[in-house]
Amino acid sequence: MALINRGLLKTAAPLLCTRRFRGKINIQKPRKPHFGRQILIDISKPHFGPPKHLLPEIMKCEKIKDTIAKMEIDNPFERILANECLNWFNTSKMVVFLHVNSINMEDKTPVYASLKKNDMHLRTYGKKIVSMATTGTRYEAVNQLFTSHQNIIFGQPENAAKMFKILKKAPQLVVMAGIIEDKLLSKNELVEFSKLPNLDVARSQLCSVLQSAGSCLVGQLNQSQQILVSHLEKHISIQNSPTTEDNQTESIDTKEES
């Protein structure tokens, strides 16, 4: 037996036996945890609503639950953005709506800078912000143009030609429609509007048209007088023509007699 014990390995008996608690665990009155653990317990503690038997009958209706689930949370930052958007609509006489295809910021930044240099501003708003800003105003019809985040250009009508020239550098920005002087225009109408001359040239053209109309009116008023004068002169010439012929015949007769 001794030889067998020497040949086989023996397991070493542990000198210490560790336990988590030295004494018995007090289940009825457990010890309070330390401060960090207590904070973690308070944060992760689940929150249960009032019991169903304490709720009023109106809260137990399924339709009311659906309407409560659909209720939107009032976001003050969204209201600030909506007021900013409405202010842009009210202060800008030209508002152009863009459809944005895939474009990176390296291509979009030069367009933004060029528009800013020409007193035009490129802004990005979502459907919810535009709906909050335009609902109940004269711009409510533009909500049909928005499906997600889209870009809007705010400026003045005299810069329409410069805007189309700048947007040629970024074909990813497609013009859909615009508002000029509180009138909704399509893309083709915006292009035609951009080709119109400026105010000074239009005034000079108007002056030339008015001047030509005045000269035409004066000519029409004087036309009857001129026709009458020409007819009188012709009549006088006709009356004087027989006397000259008689004088010529008399002179011929005198010559023959002589």
Automatic annotation (TrEMBL):
<dbReference type="InterPro" id="IPR043141">
    <property type="entry name" value="Ribosomal_uL10-like_sf"/>
</dbReference>
<comment type="similarity">
    <text>Belongs to the universal ribosomal protein uL10 family.</text>
</comment>
<dbReference type="InterPro" id="IPR047865">
    <property type="entry name" value="Ribosomal_uL10_bac_type"/>
</dbReference>
<dbReference type="GO" id="GO:0005840">
    <property type="term" value="C:ribosome"/>
</dbReference>
<protein>
    <recommendedName>
        <fullName>Large ribosomal subunit protein uL10m</fullName>
    </recommendedName>
</protein>
<keyword id="KW-0687">Ribonucleoprotein</keyword>
<keyword id="KW-0689">Ribosomal protein</keyword>
<feature type="region of interest" description="Disordered">
    <location>
        <begin position="239"/>
        <end position="258"/>
    </location>
</feature>
<feature type="compositionally biased region" description="Polar residues">
    <location>
        <begin position="239"/>
        <end position="251"/>
    </location>
</feature>
<dbReference type="GO" id="GO:1990904">
    <property type="term" value="C:ribonucleoprotein complex"/>
</dbReference>
